Structures are given as structure tokens and as C-alpha cells.
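Limitations

Structures in this collection are predictions, not experimental determinations, and the ligand pose is part of the prediction. Treat each record accordingly. The example that follows, with adenosine-5'-tetraphosphate as the small molecule, is included so readers can see exactly what is and is not provided: the inputs are given verbatim, and the output is the predicted complex.
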Amino acid sequence: RPRVLSGIQPTADSFHLGNYLGALRQWVALQDTHEAFYCVVDLHAITVEQDPKVLRARTRASAAQLLAIGIDPERSSLFVQSHVPEHAQLGWVLECLTGFGEAGRMTQFKDKSARQAADRISVGLFTYPILQAADILLYRADFVPVGEDQRQHLELTRDLAQRFNTRFGKTFKLPEPYIVKDTAKIYDLQDPTAKMSKSVPAGMVELLEDPKRSAKKFRSAVTDTGREIVYDPAEKAGVSNLLVIYSALSGRSIDDLVADYDGKGYGDLKKDLGEVFTEFVAPIQQRVRGYLDDPAELDKVLARGAERAREVTSGVLRAVHERVGFLPPT
Ligand code: AQP
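Predicted complex:
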């Protein structure tokens, strides 16, 4: 079976709807047809300052949310990145193959670093896409389910795999991004031209917030001054974003929704979407509480996942070390 690998950062108290629709929903679906490795990428989380206690709690909460949305630890290996030391080890080798200018062209870094003074930005934030390449290449993954914002990092990953293979002999597979077009980019409810992101909390809907609060956010979502409910991302970005979310959560096609809301107003659509979201998220929240009530069991699941991951990664790292010319340990 083809293999998939993906990760998510434990840098917020809850995942948001952009994470879920852009990536995590695909993680769940791919388990049926692929051998899946999914990780909570805590090494990436410390590229920005973290409170240790909070990071630990968020790492468990992230794992609990992944289980709650349907990641099945019997079928998929679910683990914490720092439990598999080969990620950081391969990361170093790949850093030494990456040009400084090449890393500097990553737009996500440029955007994030533009908001802060140079001395406040860590070198880790700069090199994070290279560690991400290591995350993926270690598993010789065929596909990487992510949102549109990760496309450039995937291209870097492929470039590095190709470079390593050319220089040292074929070792890595060139992975393909797995991006579902319809939900590749979920937009901020307050600014439907920007992606929904944890950096801008006002326009973000969280899986673990009070659904009443989410419903209110949907009701006050920014839309244009027109009246017609049609799907037109260029002219009606706000309404189109709401239709995409509604369609993804309800399983109904956008055409079907548009026909159904013919003659109705934005207010109706927003109110109904709040209800659809509440119905979707209530059982997830309940399951998250259940998993967090038993952290020892949760830790056991993660330990098992890390063990399965290491069955793959230790051999790949050994091959890499040998090919770059490191003396094997005796
Ligand atoms: N708005 C989005 N639409 C579609 N997919 C999205 N993803 C994130 N935002 C959207 C996808 O979620 C996965 C996990 O991403 P992450 O762990 O890197 O989280 P993030 O990208 O840091 O989340 P934010 O909210 O986007 O953070 P900031 O504000 O720091 O940039 C990825 O597959 C990502 O594509």
C-alpha cells in the first residue's frame, strides 16, 4: 500500500477549521487505503517560544483531537516527533545540503519573519522546512496530505530528496503533496482574502471552543453587500468560503446548497452553518474529553506509535549515515 506521512504543530489549545478541512480530514480518509504515519510535531513548535507546561498539555491535546476526529491508532502510527530522534538527525544532514538562499526563498518564513525584529526570530524558524523535509523523507512517503500553504515546502522536500539521491545514490522517494482542491485553503471569517490562521484569532473557528461562540463567529462573518448566495470566490469571497465550509461539513454539493438557498438571505446561511458545525463538533469535543481524562492511556498509544515509526526510521537513517560517509558505530 502507498504510504502517507503528515504532521501538525501543538502550538494552540485547539486545532482550527482550516487545519481540519485543509489537512486532517484527509488524514482520516487516507487510512483506509494507505499505510499512514501521523505525528504531532513538537520539534517544530519550539521554533517560536513555548511555555514547557503548556507545550506538554497541547501535545496531549493534539493527540486527543486526532483520535477524536477518527485517526485509528490500530491502523495508523500516531506519534510525537521528539520521540523519534531520527527526525532531528536527518534534519541536520539535509540542512547541510540546503543552500542559504534556497531556504531564504520560503514565503512562509518571509511572511512570519516580516512581523518581528530579526533578533526575535529563531534560526529554527528559518530551517523548519528542512526539518519538515526530513520528517517526510525518513518514511519514504508517497503522499503528504496538507493544505495549499505547504506546497512550497513540499517542493523543497522533493528538491532535497533528488539532490541527495544524485549525490549519494538513490535513497529517498520523491513525495507528492496530497492537496484536496475544494478545501485547500479555508479563509478567515473576518477577512475572506486571508487564510484562516491561529495568528489571527478573530476570524478563526476552533474545534474545541464553545460551539455557541463558533455559531456567533459564523453569524458575524464578513460578506459583501449583495444579497445573492452564489459561489464566486473572486467577487464574493466571504459567501464562497462559507459555502465551501458548509459543503465540506454536510457532505452536500455547493450546487445543491446554492439551489436550496435561492431566495434566502446571508443570515439564513450563516445561522444554518452554525448549526451544522455544532452538530459536527459536539461528539468530537466529547471524545476529546474522554481521551484527556486518561492521559496514561494516551501516552501508551503515542509510545506504540513511536515504536512503529522507529522500525522504519532507524534503517533509513543508518543508510543515510553510511552513504554520506560516517564511520559506522561498532
Ligand atoms: N486556512 C487553512 N486552510 C487549509 N489548510 C490549512 N492548514 C492550516 N491553515 C489552513 C493546514 O493545516 C495543517 C497543519 O498546519 P500547521 O501545524 O503547520 O499549523 P499552521 O499552518 O501553523 O496553522 P496556522 O493556523 O496556519 O498557523 P500560523 O498562523 O502560524 O501560520 C497543514 O497541513 C496546513 O497546510
